[in-house]
Design goal:
Number of strands: 6
Strand content: 25-35%
Radius of gyration: 12 Å
Number of domains: 1
Number of helices: 1
Low-confidence stretches: none
Helix content: 10-25%
Order of helices and strands: EEEEEEH
Distance between the termini: 43 Å
Structural class: alpha+beta
Largest sheet: 2 strands, antiparallel
Length: about 70
């Protein structure tokens, strides 16, 4: 399978594939996340995260903006 960046629409318990691909990019680290390993995202920001560490980092940044 060719590596191609997917375009997704993140929902609360799932995501919709807008453009087929094999991965998305983490909004914090820039790491490629294979679609089959995608477990973390933010619906409001429409961002994907590599792991819970990146989720926590985003949360801290958002909290500091308040």
């Amino acid at each position: 399978m060719n590596k191609k960046k997917a375009k997704l629409h993140y929902k609360h318990n799932s995501f919709e594939i807008i453009e087929e691909g094999s991965f998305v990019v983490c909004a914090i680290s820039g790491k490629e996340i294979p679609i089959e390993n995608l477990n973390y995202w933010n619906v409001e920001l429409q961002e994907a995260y590599f792991s819970s560490l990146e989720v926590n980092e985003r949360y801290k940044k958002l909290k500091n903006k308040e």
